[in-house]
Amino acid sequence: MAVAAPTAFVVIGGLVSMLLQSLGLMPLVGTAALSVEAYSTTAGDLPQSAAVPLGIAAASTLIAILVGGAAALLITSGSWSSKVVVAAGAVTVTVPHLIGAAAVGLLLADSGVLARALSIPPEAWPSFVGGPWWGAVIIEYAWKESAFVALVVAGTLITRVADFDETAALLGAERRTRLRLVWLPLATPALIISGAITFVYTLGSYEVAWLLGRTYPEPLSVMAVRLYNDANLAARDEAAAVALTAVALAAVAGGIAFTLLRKSAVWR
């Protein structure tokens, strides 16, 4: 409670401040007056700018859940390779996204390390960096967040799955049956929670999309930062409106995740 109270104060205070600024009630310049001009000014670009991060977040989260979930099963299997996977995941989690984005850019650019190693000319190399499908951005997020998902899910399974799995094995359940009836139900809540965290983080992240993505359409986070840094201080209201749109999408994603979590077998 002692930690939650100041955190809630900062978060709620920041959201209220953004709301007031986006409605023209707390402008940096000019007279305060209730207005939705900040929303109407950005309305033309908001649909595309919202669709881009939603698509990136959905694709990268799906890949992270599949790869991370498989890695978690490998970690908890107790095989010789589990320690290697744990070490690789721990190292990956500690790499900042900015460094990861730079590394992925150097690796996947049309004149990058991989293209040169394979002797593929730039015109024949897929447009991972700055391309229409935001490939490098999705790959970077999926790589980083799959390690996060793996460690979260593995931490949950290690403390809970051994007794249930052993009991099922003694009762004659085959490995595939135990995976379906024991491992997956126990891993589902952790997968939902880590997937929701990954989705929300990816939705609001700025640096990876800015370094590896296209200049247009801009994701919401990139648009918000650009407007916030605009020389025209009046654009701060628009930046607040764009940021609140991203917050609203993140809140919807969190609500969906909580609904799925409540429907899971472990919750019941």
How would you characterize the overall build of this protein?
The chain is mainly alpha-helical and 268 residues long. It has helices at residues 4-22, 37-42, 46-76, 82-94, 97-108, 113-117, 135-158, 161-170, 175-204, 207-212, 220-228, 235-263. Helix 1 crosses helix 12. The protein is globular. The protein starts with a helix and ends in a 5-residue tail after the last helix. The relative contact order is 0.15.
Secondary-structure element string: HHHHHHHHHHHH
Radius of gyration: 22 Å
Biggest sheet character: none
Uncertain stretches of 5 or more adjacent residues: none
Helix content: over 70%
Number of strands: 0
Number of helices: 12
- Roughly what fraction of the amino acids lie in strands? under 5%
Give the termini distance in whole angstroms.
26 Å
Q: Care to give the gist of this entry?
A:
The protein is mostly helical. 72% of the residues lie in helices and 0% in strands.
